[in-house]
Write a structure and sequence with these properties.
It contains 19 helices and eleven strands.
Length: 502
């Protein structure tokens, strides 16, 4: 029973702001009888399981995609209004009470708690490195989204409020702690487990974005760029990308094998994933439910759409835009990629809209007044027709193509020629080489990584995030580069100060 109470207490922390802890939880943690090794394993597993939050389209995923030039959530009559939550994300008009902001904060800080707590119970060398990987990962994600991070030292008393680090301090801590242990991580690539390759990918990601976090006013207001990318940081990006590129990964010949129900084994690109199975998985079903029409298979929620700003970046022959896959055709009549135009079922017959005519997805939509077929939809993670509600697809966090593009960008920022890398990627994807300037690389990141949860971060780094795109006609204030700290977190931890302009 003691073990059961301990696990439930850990889970409850995910649902809190994680900036302060109740005394009764402290008592449970002090009273339980698990060995130190059991505690370490349990908390590392907790940090790993928390990665499932990234496939839940209510939290981190929507904060990274909805405010970008890739995704929107139109209101359709009485459907999808949700108090204007999706419009606020698209138009950059959110505030500190926005429910998706609160949820993302809780989920990320829950992962950070698990990772830090694991370091408190005499872990082995490898376990220490694994827990440190997760600690750095969650510090990085909190820094990126919120601009400040409440951080406890391992073993610190829960009765005291955690120290709060600014963006500049937090990214330095995340990098230094992970660099100290990277060589203690295994070179074996086990799905879902931290290894030296996933640590290298994370370090490359942090060094690539470091200039953004350093560009912060004294009062915490983020600067909008253009940013100063130091050569030393870009050399680090290349160094860590080369560790991954020297590993057991190859670009996937069939792009959508990275996202199909057997991608645990089928993908040759996955570096770090949140592992799902039909018996024990997260909410990956949301990846197709959130966008498909009610009358398609599976029957979706008729929600989120792709923007023309994304669609127009593709050549018509790019298989990442549209692929006819036998698996989808046989089960549903769907194509993989961005769906527009008339839709058919698995028998080739028209799928009907609410009016009884053929469902036809249009490129246009309105944030406030769309019918049931406005807006292009996206099928990237292929539905698992053996278990629609509990799919077997792993949710990919880091993969090889992202690493290749990070190296290309770092080289371009050092005035080196990354054309070989871009040509390699586009050749495997079956499209002609188009150039390797910085703007080409940003566009290629859109084509390659769309709806994977990186677009907001990429646009900020390229100083395009505050601009305009489909259904967003006005520029945003630079304060919107980071989200507000949830009001509940500020009220419980006096070390937290609300971000400027919120």
């Amino acid at each position: 029973m003691k073990k059961y109470v301990y696990i439930l207490s850990s889970i409850s922390l995910v649902l809190s702001s994680c900036s302060n802890l109740e005394e009764d939880v402290v008592g449970v943690l002090e009273a339980e009888t698990l060995s130190n090794q059991e505690k370490v394993i349990g908390q590392i597993n907790g940090a790993q399981n928390q990665l499932q939050a990234f496939q839940n389209t209510d939290f981190m995923f929507v904060l990274q995609e909805h405010p970008s030039d890739e995704m929107a959530g139109p209101t359709r009559g009485a459907d999808w209004d949700d108090g204007g939550a999706w419009r606020d994300l698209h138009l950059h008009t959110w505030n500190s009470s926005h429910p998706r902001v609160q949820g993302a904060w809780d989920q990320i800080l829950g992962g950070l708690f698990f990772a830090t707590d694991a370091l408190s119970y005499e872990p082995t060398t490898e376990q220490f490195a694994q827990a440190t990987f997760f600690r750095s990962f969650y510090i990085f994600m909190t820094t990126d989204l919120f601009g400040q991070v409440p951080v406890r030292q391992p073993g610190a008393s829960f009765s005291e409020n955690p120290e709060v680090l600014k963006r500049t301090e937090a990214i330095a801590l995340a990098i230094s702690e992970l660099e100290a242990v990277i060589n203690d991580l295994p070179l074996v690539n086990t799905p879902g487990k931290p290894n030296r390759y996933s640590a290298a990918a994370l370090l490359a990601k942090m060094y690539l974005n470091k200039a953004v976090y350093l560009a912060t006013d004294e009062d915490g207001t983020p600067q909008a760029g253009p940013f100063t990318f130091e050569n030393a940081d870009m050399q680090k990006v290349v160094q860590y990308c080369d560790i991954v590129l020297g590993g057991p990964f190859t670009l996937q010949a069939n792009y959508f094998d990275n996202f199909n129900p057997s991608n645990t084994s089928a993908s040759t690109e996955a570096i770090l994933s949140s592992v799902n199975t039909n018996d024990n998985g997260g909410e990956l079903r949301r990846m197709y439910f959130m966008t498909l029409h009610y009358n398609q298979k599976p029957s979706g929620w008729n929600g989120f759409v792709a923007l023309t700003d994304l669609y127009n970046k593709f050549e018509a022959t790019d298989p990442r835009l549209k692929s006819n896959l036998p698996y989808l055709n046989t089960n549903s009549g769907l194509t993989a990629g961005i769906l527009q135009g008339p839709q058919v079922n698995e028998f080739g017959a028209p799928v009907l809209n609410r009016a009884g005519s053929q469902l036809t997805f249009s490129q246009d939509f309105s944030l406030t007044n769309s019918d049931d077929q406005k807006g292009m939809r996206v099928i990237k993670y292929l539905p698992d027709y053996s278990n629609i509600d509990r799919p077997n697809n792993d949710f990919v966090i880091f993969r090889l193509a992202d690493v290749l593009l990070m190296k290309a960008e770092a080289m371009a920022r050092m005035n080196q020629d990354p054309s070989a890398l871009l040509s390699q990627l586009r050749t495997v994807r079956g499209v002609a080489y188009t150039g390797a300037g910085l703007s080409d690389i940003l566009d290629e990141r859109a084509r390659e990584l769309y709806w994977e949860g990186w677009r907001r971060q990429d646009q900020i780094r390229y100083s395009t995030f505050l601009g305009t795109w489909q259904e967003k006609s006005t520029n945003s204030d630079r304060a919107k580069i980071i989200f507000p700290i949830p009001a509940s977190a500020v009220s419980t931890n006096p070390n937290l100060v609300q971000n400027p302009s919120y």
